[in-house]
What we know:
By secondary structure, the protein is mostly helical. It has helices spanning 4-12, 16-27, 32-39, 43-71. The chain has one domain (4-71): Winged helix-like DNA-binding domain superfamily/Winged helix DNA-binding domain (Arc Repressor Mutant, subunit A, Orthogonal Bundle), CATH 1.10.10. It is elongated, with a radius of gyration of 14 Å.
Amino acid sequence: MVTRERVESLLEALDPVDRSMLILKEVEGFSVGEIARMMELNGNTVKVRLFRARRRMVELHRKRALKESRQD
């Protein structure tokens, strides 16, 4: 189970623009098109950045979980 604190920590590790996009999409429920208009970016750019931000969060989570399991 991933805690709220862990998610917040992972979000903080992201690039500020990527973090904003991810929050707008996943928390606030905005569409890719809406985010693209708000940030004055191409929709495909938003899709790619969201994909990479999600992937980065997963990678960071795995690394931290592995590190924690080794400390036990």
